[in-house]
Amino acid sequence: MRNMITRLLEQYAPKGGLLRAALALGGASLATQAVGVLLSPLYSRLYAPADFGLFGVYTSILAAALTVGSLCYETGIPVGKDDAEAIGLTAISILLILIIALGAVAWMGLETLAGSQASRSQLGGYLWLVPVGIVGAGVYRAIRYWALRRNAMAAIARTSISQLVGSNAMTLGFGVLYPRPLGLILGSIAGYSAGTWDLARRTQLIPLLRPDSASRVTSGQLWMIAKKYRRLPLMSAPSALFNSLGIYLPGILLAPYFGADFAGQFFMGMRVISLPVGLIGGVLSQVFFGSCAAVARDRPQDLARFFNRVFVRAAACSLVILLAGLAAPWAFPVVFGKQWRPAGQIAVWLSLYCTVGLGVSALSSVPNIVGRLRGQFVIDVVRALAVLLLFVLGHRGGLSGMTLVKGYTAVMTAGYLAYLALYSHQVRVVARTGLTGWNEPTGAP
After folding, report:
1. Which residues pair with 444 in a beta bridge?
2. Distance CA 397, CA 6 (A)
3. Contact 288, 358 (CB under 8 A)
4. DSSP assignments along 391-428, one per residue
5. How far apart are the C-alpha atoms of 330 and 357, rounded to whole Å?
6. How far is 329 from 324, CA to CA, in rounded Å?
């Protein structure tokens, strides 16, 4: 993994500091994932499957909300034409996150007053923590994109360590003293948001956002920047919402359809199988986004070659997921306890689509980088509707939870193959023409 990132950056990224910083980011991510692996057997014995099931519903709702919390304006930060424009996009993103969090609070208040089924369910009290998660994770996400623009990967790595410590300390403490879904939820909030202020300070963002800053962006300029990048909220945000629904709908629907225990088994299987995706795909996607944005701006003719290199290496690394999935039915009962045997069987099927998905998800920033968002939107909508129909109609038709997991694997695999074909076509067009959709007067589909 370390040698792979080294080779990529030596050819396509500036020398020196960025290379060392990217390697530091890879090391921090490796440490984070390693600690997660080591502590998972402990958490699986401290918390019951039903606790993980309710936690999975919470995280699925939060993740879906975060995809559109800032209307995807944060994804434009690395590709802004100058720092003033990037600062404006960062400010817009943070402002929108605060607005959506207030909206979530108002929604929860109305649900509680109306005595809805959601507010009276087992998850009802925990839903009040959704706005907290939106602010913590959303603000950090906007600042992380600013850090990627500044190539401050060493600072991101430091933040990852802070998040690692905060998340596991919270989860472990509650697991020992009060083993309920609350401990898992608070641990995830700490894992999203710890170190945010330190990252903003290390990337010199805080002085730039102050009202007395020489680089201050006025409200009129913010409006002009928002209009310039309007394709992000109009196309990219709906696309991201449908994309996230395709991923997180099972976590939301399995609990009411098949009970919190089965939902917890699914969540544990996904949690373990996605560990390599988080390590390899997470590091590659951040390196790819930061470096690919620069390649698209300065050397568009090299974009297709860079894309192919990242994909080949990510695809080779994804074989780790397939091997882990094949071993899961035997490993889960031994590592996590006999009560998690169904999770191992679920992990076999999840590993099939995650193997394909790792290489593709590492490249998922291509549409935003090249400014061609329509194709991604179409695939996202089709995949989300397919997942929704699969679970709703399958449940009504009396299909078992395991059968729906197998169908979900087939839908997700087909979706990732469609994404790969789209991204490959888009980078070839930019490499041939030397133009992205952001360079063209009216944009491109």
Report:
1. 372
2. 51
3. no
4. HHHHHHTT--HHHHHHHHHHHHHHHHHHHHHHHHHHHH
5. 24
6. 10
Identify residue 341 by its one-letter amino acid code.
R
Band of residue 20 on the pLDDT scale cut at 50, 70, 90: low
Higher pLDDT, 33 or 134: 134
d(CA 284, CA 282) in angstroms, rounded, equals: 6
Q: Is 205 part of any domain?
A: yes
CA 333 to chain centre: 29
- 161: burial class by Cβ within 10 Å (0-12, 13-18, 19+)? middle
Percent of residues in the chain assigned helix, strand, coil, to nearest 5: 85, 0, 15
- In the structure, how many helices (H) and strands (E) does the chain have? 21, 0
- DSSP, res 372: B
Confidence band, pLDDT 50/70/90 cuts, at residue 7: very low
Residue 410: name the closest of 363, 345, 348, 352 by CA. 352
| pLDDT above 90 as % of the chain | 32
Helix axes 303-317, 2-12, angle to 10 degrees: 180
Mean pLDDT of 214-221: 72
Burial of 214 by CB count in 10 Å (0-12 exposed, 13-18 middle, 19+ buried)? exposed
Q: Which amino acid is at 15?
A: K
Residue 443 lies in a domain: no
Is 180 inside any structural domain? yes
Please state the pTM of the whole predicted model: 0.77
- Residue range(s) defining the domain that contains residue 267: 2-433
First to last CA, the chain: 35
Is 440 within the bounds of a domain?
no
Q: Rg of the Cα trace of the chain?
A: 21
